[in-house]
């Protein structure tokens, strides 16, 4: 019986070769997209799974409920109090530095070692890397110890058994207490060396508002995380507020409103890569992942729709076969199984082809996402094969059930093809397919317009030919280093100007604090800078004046602010000049002497935040954070100037350290990469959807027009023109397309409006994508269907009239 079914299946594949090829092609494309996105998702979810304590380690995030913003920092006393007063919290580990690099000296050699981390002494209790040498006991206790990865140990000593050896950094000696092997599995926490911020934490033990640390907590098994969040509010946030509120002259609740945070979140360590609202190691983007996954599933659904439509359209060809089989005793269940087998063979062939195509496209996909995914995870094969079975059931069961339900007498007469039931089924499924196609066209155009809007938007500064060099070598007095080298670097041929700024567009680095005025407080970024920095970056002055080095007050208590700062306080420009503000980093009142036009520092997607600009010497501690020097390069020989700068830097400023530099405009452009990739993916998926949909439409129209050739022959004999015949054959499909686009418009509007809500700077919902979707789909439908309709007008009249 099975052999007989397979013979019949292959006869039908050959007979309907066009629809067979289209089904194979559509399903292969759909399954390939599904597997690639599934592998991407699986890779993102695999981070930190290697950790045996992952079930009980949670990343800590703060939540400001009033502004619905999230942070990833905590203060030392908050973490220490949590362990003392909340029973569910067993331990904590703090981070206050990652991606560090130093020039290190050993008895063997002096080399630069990067990818370091500063973490508290409980680190190895949270991350039990395989120990190679030494001991984890007290490995990070004190300020003169460090642990090395096997890679760093080989780089510094040429071997891994180096516990007890000494490493010098800036004339300070560290004893190597442990050597560990990093896991090969995906992890965001892979430091090549670790030392403890012992002295800094010691000084911060009473600093409740010093949120300079990232944090993981180790919880007891079975902890109710939602209840824990409430305990943090009652025992940590409210406790801190009670301590500080008296000095501020407000109630603890008011203090929390002003200075926050007002709540906490806990995310399992193996979920932070994709699901964390805020993380020390980078925020996740689960929403985008779900969008991509949904779109990949939709393409598979479109392929299944093609299958259903083509099978039901071919019903008349199978009617007599079904009638005969029923007449000789075939049961309904046997017929259903036979048609399911035919569908499964096509789906299985598509699955095998998609595996080959996925393997072929994987290197390009890895390059696109900067990953190293390989097809060695059984989950990928398992879930993709489940999708194949689902497609088999969905696309096979519907037509199989309808075909098997034919009554023997009616099927022998071939009446099903003309039945309203069969027509409504095909038209309904075709409408769904075109609704999805319309959504992709509309969505693709809106995504393109939003990305173009962000890229074309006036950023408020000019980073063109501004070359930034980060300080790699630690200095006791970095501001003196800057002041010493800036005049020397001005002398380099091709350098037009030199400056320093803390709030650098595209750098991702920033610091902020509360700024108080009477009973109102806002958070504002710090923009410590050299006097000329804003002019250096071509930022526009809206009102007032620039800072002047010749005025003593400009080096002590005068500041500039941006428009967002003024608007956040609800002032007019004139009011801003009359009011004094008190930043959280100082107790002195500060005077605003100038207001600059807003310019984008962090991200083209986010709203511009309030910034307060002041000279880096204005506060004692800010000058210790001077971390870069910026040079404006003349346009005539940029490459030559960069070479001269690099040569001077490596010989005279930081010999032996990497030359960490970039052009600001290019660095800021990297913040667009994520959205450009979304744009590219949407364009590719859009093309795939349209290709699958139009091929399905062509095959379906071909089958349906084939069934009307006798009608065409009769009408042509009666004098109908080719134009009238073509329009008559395509009219039905054009109406279906028109209705499908009308249905898709409100759906597309809602979904794309939700997507645009993620952007503070967004386009108004445009009209043209909806109009263009309607026009383009009507034109494409007419073009695809009219090809077969035109061929139908050239039928041999004698053949069909003689048949009648």
Characterise this structure.
The protein is of the alpha+beta class. The chain has four domains: 149 residues, no CATH class; 213 residues, no CATH class; 167 residues, no CATH class; 204 residues, no CATH class. 52% of the residues lie in helices and 17% in strands. It is built from 26 helices and 22 strands. β14 and β15 form a beta hairpin. α2 packs antiparallel against α13 and α12 packs antiparallel against α13. The longest helix has 38 residues. InterPro entries: ABC3_permease_C, MacB_PCD, Macrolide_Exporter_MacB. One of its GO terms (cellular component) is plasma membrane. Keywords: Cell membrane, Membrane, Transmembrane, Transmembrane helix.
Beta content comes to 15-25%
The counted number of beta strands is 22
Which structural class best describes the helix and strand composition?
Answer: alpha+beta
The backbone outline, from C-alpha atoms, is globular
Task: Give the strand order of the largest sheet, numbering strands 1, 2, ... along the chain.
Answer: 3-4-9-6-8-7
Low-pLDDT residue intervals, each spanning 5 or more residues: none
What is the arithmetic mean of pLDDT?
Answer: 80
- Distance linking N and C termini: 37 Å
Number of domains: 4
**Tally of DSSP helical segments:** 26
Largest pleated sheet: 6 strands, mixed, barrel
Pfam families: FtsX, MacB_PCD
Organism: Epilithonimonas arachidiradicis
InterPro entries: ABC3_permease_C (IPR003838), MacB_PCD (IPR025857), Macrolide_Exporter_MacB (IPR050250)
Membrane topology: Multi-pass membrane protein
């Amino acid at each position: 019986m099975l052999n007989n079914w397979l013979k019949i299946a292959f006869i039908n594949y050959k007979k309907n070769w066009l629809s067979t090829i289209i089904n194979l092609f559509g399903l292969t494309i759909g399954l390939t997209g599904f597997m690639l996105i599934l592998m991407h998702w699986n890779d993102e979810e695999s981070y930190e799974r290697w950790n045996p304590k992952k079930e009980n380690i949670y990343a800590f995030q703060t939540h400001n409920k009033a502004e619905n913003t999230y942070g990833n920092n905590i203060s030392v006393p908050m973490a220490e109090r949590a362990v003392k007063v909340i029973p569910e919290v067993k331990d904590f580990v703090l981070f206050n530095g990652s991606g560090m690099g130093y020039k290190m000296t050993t008895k063997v050699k002096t080399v630069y070692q990067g990818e370091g981390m500063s973490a508290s002494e409980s680190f190895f209790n949270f991350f039990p890397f395989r120990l190679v040498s030494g001991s984890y006991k007290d490995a990070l206790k004190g300020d003169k110890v460090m642990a090395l990865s096997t890679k760093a140990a080989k780089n510094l000593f040429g071997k891994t058994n180096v516990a007890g050896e000494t490493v010098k950094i800036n004339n300070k000696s560290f004893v190597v207490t442990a050597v560990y092997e990093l896991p090969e599995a995906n992890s965001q926490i892979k430091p090549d060396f670790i030392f403890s911020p012992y002295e800094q934490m010691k000084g911060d033990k009473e600093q409740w508002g010093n949120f300079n640390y990232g944090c993981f907590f180790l919880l007891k098994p079975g902890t109710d995380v939602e209840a824990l969040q409430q305990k943090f509010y009652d025992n940590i946030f409210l406790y801190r507020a009670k301590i500080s509120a008296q000095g501020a002259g407000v109630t603890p609740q008011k203090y929390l409103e002003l200075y926050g945070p007002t709540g906490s979140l806990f995310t399992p360590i193996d979920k932070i890569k994709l699901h964390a609202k805020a993380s020390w190691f980078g925020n996740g983007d689960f929403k985008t992942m779900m969008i991509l996954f949904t779109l990949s599933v939709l393409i598979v659904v479109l392929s299944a729709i093609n299958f259903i439509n083509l099978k039901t359209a071919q019903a008349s060809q199978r009617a007599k076969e079904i009638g005969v089989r029923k007449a000789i005793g075939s049961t309904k269940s046997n017929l259903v199984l036979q048609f399911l087998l035919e569908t499964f063979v096509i789906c299985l062939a598509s699955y095998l082809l998609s595996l080959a195509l996925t393997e072929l496209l994987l290197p390009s996909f890895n390059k696109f996402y900067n990953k190293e995914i390989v097809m060695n995870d059984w989950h990928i094969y398992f879930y993709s094969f489940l999708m194949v079975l689902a497609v088999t059931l969905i696309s096979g069961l519907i037509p199989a059930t309808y075909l098997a339900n034919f009554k023997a007498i009616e099927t022998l007469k071939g009446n099903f093809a003309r039945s309203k039931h069969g027509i409504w089924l095909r038209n309904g499924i075709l409408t769904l397919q075109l609704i999805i196609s319309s959504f992709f066209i509309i969505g693709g155009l809106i995504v393109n317009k939003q990305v173009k809007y962000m890229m074309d938007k006036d950023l408020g500064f000019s980073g063109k030919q501004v070359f930034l060099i980060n300080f790699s070598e630690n200095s006791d007095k970095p501001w003196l280093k800057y002041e010493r080298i800036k005049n020397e670097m001005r002398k380099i041929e091709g350098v037009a100007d030199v400056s320093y700024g803390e709030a650098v567009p595209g750098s991702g680095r920033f610091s902020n604090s509360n700024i108080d005025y009477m009973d109102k407080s806002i958070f504002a970024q710090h923009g410590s800078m050299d006097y000329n920095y804003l002019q250096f970056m071509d930022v526009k002055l809206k009102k007032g004046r620039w800072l002047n080095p010749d005025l003593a007050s400009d080096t002590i208590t005068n500041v500039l602010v941006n428009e967002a700062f003024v608007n956040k306080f609800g002032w007019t420009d004139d009011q801003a000049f009359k009011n004094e503000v008190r930043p959280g980093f100082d107790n002195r009142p500060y005077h605003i002497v100038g207001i600059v036009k807003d310019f984008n520092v962090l991200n083209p997607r986010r709203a511009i935040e309030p910034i307060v600009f002041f000279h880096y010497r204005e506060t004692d501690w800010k000058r210790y954070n001077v971390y870069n020097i910026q040079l404006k390069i003349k346009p005539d020989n940029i490459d030559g100037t960069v070479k001269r700068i690099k040569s001077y830097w490596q010989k005279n400023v930081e010999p032996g350290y990497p030359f960490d530099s970039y052009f600001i405009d290019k660095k800021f452009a990297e913040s667009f990469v994520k959205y450009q990739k979304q744009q590219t993916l949407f364009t590719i998926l859009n093309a795939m959807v349209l290709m699958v949909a139009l091929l399905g439409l062509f095959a379906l129209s071909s089958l349906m027009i084939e069934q009307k050739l006798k009608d065409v022959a009769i009408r042509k004999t009666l004098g109908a023109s080719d134009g009238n015949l073509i329009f008559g054959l395509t009219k039905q499909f054009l109406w279906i397309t028109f209705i499908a686009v009308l249905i898709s418009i409100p759906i597309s509007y809602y979904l794309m409006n939700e997507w645009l809500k993620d952007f503070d700077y967004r386009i108004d919902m445009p009209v043209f994508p909806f109009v263009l979707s309607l026009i383009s789909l009507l034109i494409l439908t007419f073009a695809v269907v009219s090809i077969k309709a035109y061929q139908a007008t050239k039928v041999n009249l004698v053949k069909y009239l003689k048949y009648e």
